[in-house]
Specification:
CATH class: Alpha Beta
CATH superfamily: Gcn5-related N-acetyltransferase (GNAT)
CATH architecture: 3-Layer(aba) Sandwich
Structural class: alpha+beta
CATH topology: Aminopeptidase
Helix content: 25-40%
Strand order of the largest sheet: 1-2-3-4-5-6-8-7
Number of strands: 8
């Protein structure tokens, strides 16, 4: 696949496409998904969303990278991104959404995070990836811990308490990225 950037055991990460817009729009409008980000669902029309989406694809921000998550059959199930990129400190923040709820609780999120970490630490100079997840989102915390993240503290934003977790480059297991010919032996 030409736009694939990494492949794990259950998922592929690839560059975002305009054809992802409809699913992304539906996920951003979903109150349950928004609650996991301590956000409100978007209220813009699809036409307005698509205009902004198109601009983001044409003129990507230098401070974030967004990838689509697909199952191995090519079904777009979510997105993963790193943002707040700080090259001087060698760190960035992780954000992930498994928008297709049929894939919840089945290991796809954990595999996407592991695949993402291997990609980022292989293709960038970043040394640390951190994230913030709501203190009540135990399922996400378990998935992040399965991927190797460790909790390092808490912080409050508005009325919400977040658990901060991190993963350091040196924690990455040596060897070729999952899904490559060398690791498939």
């Amino acid at each position: 696949m030409e736009d694939e950037v990494a492949c794990g055991k259950l998922v592929r990460l690839r560059r975002k496409r305009l054809s992802d817009a409809e699913a992304d729009y539906q996920w951003r409008r979903d109150p349950e998904l928004a609650s996991f980000d301590a956000a409100t669902p978007i209220r813009s029309s699809f036409k307005e969303f698509l205009a902004s989406y198109t601009d983001d694809l044409r003129y990507p921000s230098p401070f974030r990278r967004v990838f689509a998550i697909e199952d191995l059959d090519g079904h777009h199930i979510g997105n993963v991104m790193y943002y707040n990129i700080d090259d001087r400190r060698g760190e960035a923040e992780l954000g992930i959404t498994i928008g297709d709820k049929r894939y919840w609780g089945r290991g796809y999120g954990t595999d996407a995070v592991k695949t993402f970490l291997r990609y980022v630490f292989t293709h960038t100079n970043l040394r640390r990836i951190y994230l913030n997840t709501l203190d009540w989102n135990v399922r996400a915390q378990r998935a992040f811990q399965k991927a190797g993240f460790v909790p390092i503290g808490t912080n409050r934003r508005g009325f919400h308490t977040f658990i901060t977790m991190e993963f350091l480059r040196e924690w990455l297991e040596p060897g070729p990225p999952e899904g490559t010919a060398s690791s498939a032996t």
